[in-house]
Amino acid sequence: MSFFPDSPASQSENTVSNVAEYSVSEISGALKRTVEDTFSHVRVRGEISGYRGPHSSGHAYFALKDERARIEAVIWRGSMSRIKFRPEEGMEVIATGKLTTYPGSSKYQIVIEQMEPAGAGALMALLEERKQRLAQEGLFDGSRKQLLPFMPRIIGVVTSPTGAVIRDIIHRISDRFPLHVLVWPVRVQGDTSGSEVARAVSGFNSEYFGKVLPKPDIIIVARGGGSLEDLWGFNDESVVRAVAASAIPIISAVGHETDWTLIDLAADIRAPTPTGAAEMAVPVRADLQVQTLSSSARLAAAMTRLIDRRRDAYRSLQRAMPSTDQLLALPRRRFDEAASRLGRALLSGTAHKRARFDGLGRQLSPRLLHQQIRERKIHLHQLSQRLPRSLTLKTNISQNLYRQVALRLNSDLILRHTKQWSTHTDGLQRRGDQAIRHILVRYHNRNQELTRLMDTLSHTSVLKRGFAIVMNDQGIPVKAAAMISAGDHLSLHFHDGETPVIADGGTNTGAATAKSQEASASTKKSKTVKAKAIAPSGQGTLF
Predict the structure, then answer these.
(1) Where in the chain is the domain with CATH 3.40.50.261?
(2) CA–CA separation, 90 vs 88, rounded Å?
(3) CA distance linking residue 533 with residue 9, whole number of Å
(4) In whole angstroms, what is the distance from residue 504 CA to residue 488 CA?
(5) 417: region left, alpha or beta (phi > 0 left; psi from -120 to 50 alpha)
(6) CATH architecture assignment, domain 24-118
(7) What is the largest CA-CA distance in the chain?
(8) Residues of the chain with pLDDT under 50
(9) What pLDDT does 542 receive?
């Protein structure tokens, strides 16, 4: 670099370039349009990195990487709800979407619209991981399984209404035992199949069925065979949880006998085919009729044999029982003996009672009664003589007690106690008055300190030093000149009053003609406000 003004480098710096100038926003916009037009639809295979689950807004932000590069990725909330598996850190996926740029950080990223695991092996690994996790929660335990009712009245079927599965189930039920079938139509393949099946199972268990519509006794979840991707909706976590939480027994009939899904593990019983599910749900009516007739015939024969055995037993007991004379011989003899003893017992009892009555009559003679009366009168006379002495003794004891109490309650003692309590009361009153005076003085001093602090912090003290407050017509303080426009009604508040004014507008005091003038103008105000004071006579004055 040369420090001489005439050097070639200095001359090249002063030359004007003919290259067009772009702003940062224009460059970013051009790059964004170029990338989106060129890569409007791409499929990218990579490993998920930095995934922390959906944001609170429902969007998901992470990155896709391989061994040499890394690209940022985003899934908007609408696309996130259509992904039929849960993305995890380190999972290899195939993402479909478009490339775009983010001007805020000069980065490019892929907006993912669809995403699936990279190959069937990844699906099986994801399925095994989900199976282990749900098994640890106890959703597949045998203790949760319910027994199927032997004779259901209503059967609920969750399947596609247009497929051959529902026709096979209805045809098989009609052949075996015609019942009422409720069909909840769902999609059995696609992104929304899992959520629809989960809503159907929860719907059959809702209060609506049982009040408005009859509640089914068994639910059959059925679908025909297919690949792992076709049956993936029945591996959805929401379906497994809905089936495990169902209070109605559920038969899983998804796919053929060799196919299996997570709903098979959560259901109460698994059927190899939808037709097999119908056979498990209902018995054969003809077999039941034959069994009923056979049971009726066996019951009639058993009742006939039972009646014959009971009749033979009664006849044997009748022959073994004794006659009436034999049964009543002993009681008759006892009665005759008791009758013969009754006459003698009456005579003996009457004599005994008469002798006792005579003895009591001799005890109640007039001479004996007069003697008892004389003894009672003597006893009463003795008590009447003892009564005056007892009253005199009791009176003397009470008088002595009252005299002792009166000695303890003399007037000198009462006056002495009264004087002591009066002195104590006067002391308490003086202490109370003194405490109240101290409290009042302390609060008075505190009040004066707060008053001085309030005066110091108040804006009125600032106004007294020559400042003023500018307020608009709404009484709101104006804090910047940019808030004032020409014709605004303002008021200037001083410490001794306020003055209404009208703003004339502002003018730029600086000029951008030279760098030196710009430097000097930057120290001045960019806008000045000229106002006219409104005099009472209506004549404005320049403030």
Answers:
(1) 144-282
(2) 6
(3) 61
(4) 8
(5) alpha
(6) Beta Barrel (2.40)
(7) 177
(8) 1-12, 14, 507-543
(9) 45
